[in-house]
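Weekly sync notes, structure subgroup
Attendees: PM, AL, DS (notes)

Item 1: joint prediction request from the bench team. They want all two components modeled as one assembly rather than separately. Inputs as received:
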Amino acid sequence: MQALAPFSLLATGYKGHDMNRLTEFLVGLLFGLGLILSGMTDPGKIIGFLDVFGAWDPSLAFVMMGAIAVGFVAFALAKKRTTTILGGALRLPTASHIDKRLIIGSTVFGIGWGLAGFCPGPALVSMASGQIQALWFVSAMVAGMLAYEAFERGR
Amino acid sequence: MIAIDWSHFTPWSAITGGVLLGIASALFILANGRILGISGILGGLLPPKAGDAGWRLTFLLGMFAAPWLFVLVAPADFMSAPRIQANTLTTVIAGLLVGIGTRYASGCTSGHGVCGLSRLSPRSLVATLSFMGAGVGTVLIARHWL
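Output from the run, pasted for the record:
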């Protein structure tokens, strides 16, 4: 039974919507494929984009344009709905405040992003493909997230 | 004074990959009712909460399957070795900063950059300008001044 533990963890969020599990997996897969195809799993493409004052590679701007063109339509549709097409709860963000946490947090993230050329998504995909440097990055990122949890609980 | 690196600029694969990211984000909000934000999805597992871990793990499994599926259909040299790679110490420091920063900001390139800008959120626009500005500044200092 011990060996089945990971599977029971998988089932903890299960509330009878079979389709949800399928779409969650497919969305993860599509997102991962999009990151690879767009070249974002190569830290060189990220640093090339951020290197505005050197040899600038604008590819990432095109990735954002492609993603936002589709996302804009999807979120406009989502804002008009109260439930998902599968009948579940539609959780649109409610936070709209612009504060120090947002700006300082994003700035700290941006410094790390510029140093290694990894943000969370591409780092996870690169780690899964067996890249050792991505494994270092993700381990440190998880440690950073756990440190945040510890700080927040101590407040 | 901006000089475009034409030898590495890949507009077509960038825009096609971007559309895939958009479709994934669209499906996630319309079918699952959730924002596709990687730092939030991962951070919510640290530690996992009862009844809230399954969807996060299923999504991550799908993401982890992507490179293995991709090599089956793509030319062998597509996912070649990264062009630039930071040394291990820099990589670890960068990972810590990204982990802490994205959690304080409640989002990263996917949650704020793609989903937030798609829903025209001023909060996400400020986040995106902040991390892009910090990224540009970091590369300027690390690659041109140091």
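Discussion: The longest strand of chain A covers residues 55-56.
Action: AL to compare against the crosslinking data before next sync.
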